[in-house]
Amino acid sequence: MPSHPSRLRVAVVGTGGIITGGHLPALRAHADRVALVAAVDVAPERLAAFREAAGALWDEGPEAREFTDLDTMLAEARPDLVLIGTPPSLHRAQTVAALRAGAWVLCEKPLTLSLAEYDEIAAAEEATGAYAAPVFQHRYGSGAEHARQLIASGELGAPLVAHCQTTWHRDTAYYSVPWRGRWETEGGGPTMGHGIHQYDLLLHLLGPWVEIRAMASRLVHDVESEDVSTALVRFENGALATVVNSVLSPDEVSRIRVDCAEATVELTHLYGHSNTDWRYTPRPGLADEARVAAWRSPADDVPSSHTAQLGGLLDAYAAGVRPPGSGPAARATVEFAAALYKAAFTGAPVRAGEITEDDPYYSAMHGDHPDWSPKR
Questions:
Q1: Which of 73, 122, 284, 334: CA 20 to 30 A from 344?
Q2: Where is the Gfo/Idh/MocA-like oxidoreductase N-terminal domain (predicted)?
Q3: Within 13 Å and on the Cβ side, how many CA atoms surround 241?
C-alpha cells in the first residue's frame, strides 16, 4: 500500500469538461487533504486552460507539473491518487498503469468497456494492493444514503416494484465526436454511457439481481450501438423492476421509484440530487406521522457529487481499506450492463453470474451478435 501523508498527492489525467466541472470543485472542497501535483493531456492548449481553471489549487502546489505522457507523469510525479477523465476506451489501460505505479484511481464511468477489462483491473488491484473506483456519484449524498438505510433496515417494508428511468436527449451533433456511438471506443449507447448512473443507484438501493430480460433498438441515430434500451429485472429480494435508458427523450429526467410494502420512495432529478429531490409516500392507512416525518428528514443535506464521492475515497485511503463502490460492487454494475445487452440482443433471459469467460458478452457488450457487432 502507498504511504499516507497528511495531504495526498493527486494527478489528473485528461483535462476536459468532466475534470474541470466535476473533479476540480471536489479537489477544492478537500484542499486540506489533497495537493494537486500533476496534470496530463495530449493537447497543450487544454493543459493551459486547466492550469488557469485550477487557479489556487495549481499555484499553491510548487511541485505541480504538466505532462503529455501518462507513464512519464507516473514515474516523475509519483502521485498517491490519479483522477481519470479521458474517453472510455482509455480507462482500462490508464487505470492499470496507475495501479502498477502504486496509485489509487478514481475514474469516470464506465470504468471499463467489458467484464474482461474489469477483471484485468481487479487483477492489477490484487497484484499491487492499490484500488480503483469508478465515478458513480449518485450513490453518494445524504438522500441516497438515507434511502438505502431505510430500505435495508426493513423500515419501509419489503421492496416490491421499482422503476429506473434515464430518459435524456442527445442530438446528431453530440455523436459527431468520433468516439461516441462506437462499441470499440464507448462500449455501448445510453445503456453504458448515460443510464449506468441510475441503474447503479438502483442496484445500490435494492442489492443483487437474479434475472434480466431486455430489448434495445437503434431508432434515430446512425451509430453502431443502441440509442434506447429497456429491461425487466428480478431482484434477489423478490422485487421486480423496469429500467429505461434513452437519448431520444425531449423531456429529460432521471428517476428512481421503489414501491415497498409500507411506502414509496421516489427520486426525481436530472444530473444530481439533494434531499429535496427525494419523496416518501406512506401506504394508505399508515397514520404514524412521527415515523413518516423521520423518513423525510435526513440529518444533513449533502448533494450527490464528485465532492461527496472523493470524500469517501479519501476516508478509505486514510483507513487503508477498499473505497466504497469499487471491487465487487463496481463489477456488479458492469455485469448488469453486459447482461442487459445479452438479453436484448439474444431475446433470452439472462441470469446473474452466467456471463463467464467463454461467453462472447464477457469480452464485448455487443457479444459479436451479427446484427450489432461493428463487423456487421
A1: 122
A2: 8-130
A3: 34
Distance CA 45, CA 48 (A): 5
Smallest CA-to-CA distance from 266 within 276, 274, 255 is with 255
CB 121 within 8 A of CB 112: yes
Neighbouring CB atoms inside 10 A of 276's CB total 10
8-135: CATH topology: Rossmann fold (3.40.50)
Give the integer Cα–Cα distance in Å for 319 and 3.
Answer: 11
pLDDT tens string 140-188:
999 999 999 999 999 999 999 999 999 999 999 999 999 999 999 999 9
- Three-class secondary structure assignment of 49-84: HHHHHHCHHHHCCCCCEEECCHHHHHHHHCCCEEEE
- Rounded Cα–Cα distance for residues 218 and 92 (Å): 27
Pairing of strands 228-235, 263-269: unpaired
Partners of 268 in beta bridges = 255
Q: Boundaries of CATH 3.30.360.10 in the chain?
A: 139-303+333-360
- The torsion angle over the Cα atoms of residues 229, 230, 236 and 237, rounded to 10 degrees, is 140
What's the fold here for domain 139-303+333-360? Dihydrodipicolinate Reductase; domain 2 (3.30.360)
Residues, the chain, total? 376
- Assigned C-alpha cell, 372: 450489432
Per-residue cell: 225: 450501438
User: In the chain, which segments carry CATH 3.40.50.720?
Assistant: 8-135
224: part of which helix (H) or strand (E)?
A: none
